Amino acid sequence: MALCLRIIYIITGLTGVHSITTVSKVSVKTGKSISIPCLYESKYRNHVKYLCEGSKWRSCNDVVKTNTADPSGKYSISDDKNQFFFTVTINNLTNENTDYWCVVEINNGPDYGKHFQLSVTSGTPSLYVDHQMITGYIGESITIRCHHSYSGEMKWCRLGRNCVTGSSGSIDGTTVTTYMSKPNVFTVTMSGLQSEDSGWYWCAKEDIQIPVYLTVTEKPITTTAHTCTGDGTVTTLKNKQQRASFDLKILIIRLSVLIFIVIVVLFIWLILRHKQRKADSSATAMVDQEVIYANVGNIR
Predict the structure, then answer these.
(1) Quick one: which of 19, 96, 111, 12 has its CA closest to 57?
(2) Looking at CB atoms within 10 Å, which of 99, 118, 181, 292 has the fewest?
(3) Three-class DSSP category at 126
(4) How confident is the model at residue 286 (pLDDT cuts 50, 70, 90)?
(5) How far is the C-alpha of 132 from the C-alpha of 96, rounded, in Å?
(6) Quick one: which of 213, 210, 228 has its CA closest to 154?
(7) What single-letter DSSP state applies at residue 50?
(8) Element (H, E) at 252
(9) Which residues of 89-102 are buried (b: 16+ CB within 10 A; e: fewer)?
(10) Could you give the C-alpha distances from 166 to 13, 75, 144, 163, 180, in angstroms and in order?
(11) Please, what sign has the CA dihedral across residues 30, 35, 38, 44?
(12) Are 50 and 106 in contact (CB under 8 A)?
């Protein structure tokens, strides 16, 4: 029955291309992992999503679903129901892992699927980034470097939103500037970040993209101490937790010194008191002897 529904789905032309947005082609290296975002319509928020492997929609194999984990560990899937996208991750890539479909399961009807392709190579990918998952801080800037191996127009896009193709532009009100920092490095800088900027983006060159997930959060507050090295370089010594530990050590040392001083003073006081008692005892003995002598003289 499911096969018949898929055939009808294709014949009628309802391929779901307007229901799911994802990459078209990604270049990746053998043995590595890749995460692919799949944007869906808000009305499918509570539907099951899954990844289907195969070049043909009617014959692809379901490999992982949001309600069923992959026991092999090769595939994983997560669903962000607030931003309406699910993310599939494929591990330990081989040249056999080339064609996939992002799919939303439809109850009592044909599922919606969107195809994407992986170009798996043993050499350097034709388009890649240093890190696919990056973190920026509210009010600050973030820089992404997209490495590519051939010439052509580059652009920076947000999943389901607009793209910046020139040297500057904006995405959802956030300023974006781009330039070629090296012959084969396309550098993107996003300035004045907001928490709403969190989400999936991608670098694109012609029909090849590389997805990047940006998390924008509050910058953690830390207390640091600095010293200058011989070459004038400022080096961070302690974070807040280390500083608290350092202060505790100083307090213990000061208490130890104070206790030592008290013990020494007490010891000296005891010695002086002992000597004073001996002196008092000697003086009392001398007075007693004088009294005895005086009494003897009176008897005569």
Answers:
(1) 111
(2) 292
(3) coil
(4) low
(5) 22
(6) 210
(7) E
(8) helix 240-299
(9) bbbebeeebbebbb
(10) 35, 36, 16, 9, 11
(11) positive
(12) no
pTM here? 0.68
| Per-residue pLDDT reduced to its tens digit, 220-256 | 887 655 544 544 444 444 455 555 566 777 888 888 8
Structure tokens at 212: 């990047």
Token representation of residue 91:
């591990």
Q: Do 58 and 7 contact (CB within 8 A), yes or no?
A: yes
Distance of alpha carbon 184 from alpha carbon 150, whole angstroms? 7
Q: Does the pLDDT at position 158 exceed 70?
A: yes
Q: Which amino acid is at 108?
A: N
Instruction: Give yes or no for a contact between 36 and 129, defined as CB atoms under 8 angstroms apart.
Output: no
Instruction: Give the closest residue to 159 by CA, choosing from 19, 43, 16, 23.
Output: 23
Q: Which of 131, 126, 99 is nearest to 201 (CA)?
A: 131
| Residue type at 144 in one-letter notation | I
Range with the poorest average pLDDT among 205-214, 219-228, 271-280 = 219-228
Strand order in the sheet with 142-148: 127-129, 142-148, 185-191, 174-182, 168-171
CA distance 11 to 15: 9
Could you tell me how far CA 247 lies from the centroid of its own chain? 29
- From the list 221, 219, 236, 223, the residue with the least C-alpha distance to 141 is 219
Which residue is it, tokens 């008290």?
Answer: 262
CB atoms within 10 A of CB 167: 10
**Residues 121 and 70: beta-carbon distance below 8 Å:** no
Q: What whole-number distance in Å separates Cα of residue 103 and Cα of residue 40? A: 9
